[in-house]
């Protein structure tokens, strides 16, 4: 069995092993990481050999850590990343390069409620094998608040100010917090992938793993971007964006991210019922300040940043250009009528 795990912000961890009578044997660790002393590689291999194939990641990492000499130095990886690679090999997980990725960035603006429906439809299509794994970058021209699946509508949104500023409220199928969205103010993308891509990973590991490519893109633009668990993309100058995720029974994972390009902080605190602690988390020192980490840190237009993201993803994973099909649009429109556009769904948590 063979497993690989690219540590977000770190190095590649590669494992090969056999399983005999539910026991790991002939385990070999490799990768482009740094490890001192050299003999510690043998210590890690010896620690894993003999473990049960049913061992969870916590147990595997503990065994590796206990076997390391006191003076051992690990750079670019950790006992936990070795454990993830092992669990991925045992689960026969796939990698990015195992798929023909499609990249969708249509200039056709789609209403926010339709974005919610498209996320569910495209994830199902990937899970059921009718669509190849896909990255989709959103475009829309209507202001909206997108609340998480489990958020309370009345606790998150001020209805009077939302109406005053022309904001509609929609609810997505993933958890997490509210997204304040105006055309041109944020960059939002969705990844629809088979769950095999994140097999053997905890939810926390999978968040960073699925967004490693966008960190690469941002760093190429001069932003010192990094992942802050559980689901934030940030930099020394403040939070850039946040991710949310949903695993579907069809065998797909939906992972979407919203990053701030240039948001109106004063308007946001009027529309959202947002406390001082939350303001601080978003890097807002006053209500009047614009939240603009991507614009201020790059000096580039939103379109230029998106172009770099598309170039990076395509360069890493060989994506080809695509679009939403007429059939997928029709399925999404039906979901808007039956689910996402209904008062029952939007107010499912009053």
UniProtKB/TrEMBL annotation:
UniProt KW Flavoprotein keyword: no
PANTHER family: OCTANOYL-[GCVH]:PROTEIN N-OCTANOYLTRANSFERASE, OCTANOYLTRANSFERASE LIPM-RELATED
Family matches, as PROSITE patterns: BPL_LPL_CATALYTIC (PS51733)
InterPro entries: aa-tRNA-synth_II/BPL/LPL, BPL_LPL_catalytic, Octanoyltrans_LipM/LipL
Name recorded for this polypeptide: Lipoate--protein ligase family protein
Alphabetized UniProt keyword annotations: Ligase
UniProt organism field: Cryobacterium mannosilyticum
Pfam families for the chain: LplA-B_cat
GO terms for MF: ligase activity
Residue ranges constituting the BPL/LPL catalytic domain according to the UniProt record: 129-321
């Amino acid at each position: 069995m063979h497993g690989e795990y690219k540590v977000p912000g770190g190095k590649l961890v590669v494992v090969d092993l056999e399983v005999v009578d539910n026991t790991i044997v002939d385990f070999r660790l490799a990768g482009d990481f740094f490890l001192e002393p050299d003999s510690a590689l043998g210590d890690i291999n010896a620690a894993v050999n003999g473990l049960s194939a049913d061992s969870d990641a916590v147990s595997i990492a503990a065994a590796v850590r206990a076997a390391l000499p006191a003076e051992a130095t690990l750079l670019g990886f950790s006992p936990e990343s070795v454990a993830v690679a092992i669990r991925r090999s045992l689960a026969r997980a796939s990698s990015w390069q195992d798929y023909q990725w499609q990249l969708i960035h249509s200039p056709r603006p789609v209403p926010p409620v339709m974005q919610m429906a498209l996320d569910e439809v495209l994830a199902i299509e990937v899970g059921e094998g009718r669509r190849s794994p896909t990255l989709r970058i959103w475009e829309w021209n209507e202001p909206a608040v997108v609340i998480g699946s489990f958020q309370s509508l009345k606790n998150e949104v001020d209805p009077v100010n939302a109406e005053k500023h022309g904001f509609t409220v929609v609810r997505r199928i993933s958890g997490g917090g509210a997204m304040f969205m105006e055309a041109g103010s944020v960059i939002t993308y969705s990844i629809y992938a088979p769950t095999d891509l994140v097999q053997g990973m905890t939810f926390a590991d999978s968040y960073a793993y699925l967004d490693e490519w966008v960190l690469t893109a941002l760093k190429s633009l001069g932003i010192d971007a990094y992942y802050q668990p559980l689901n934030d993309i940030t930099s020394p100058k403040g939070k850039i964006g946040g991710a949310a995720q949903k695993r579907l029974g069809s065998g797909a994972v939906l992972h979407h991210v919203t990053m701030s390009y240039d948001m109106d902080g004063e308007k946001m605190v009027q529309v959202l019922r947002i406390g001082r602690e939350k303001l601080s988390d978003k890097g807002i020192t006053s209500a009047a300040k614009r939240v603009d980490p991507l614009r201020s840190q790059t000096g580039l237009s939103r379109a230029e940043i998106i172009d770099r993201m598309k170039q990076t993803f395509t360069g890493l994973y060989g994506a080809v250009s695509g679009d939403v099909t007429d059939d997928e649009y029709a399925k999404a429109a039906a979901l808007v009528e039956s689910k996402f556009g209904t008062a029952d769904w939007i107010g499912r948590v009053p």
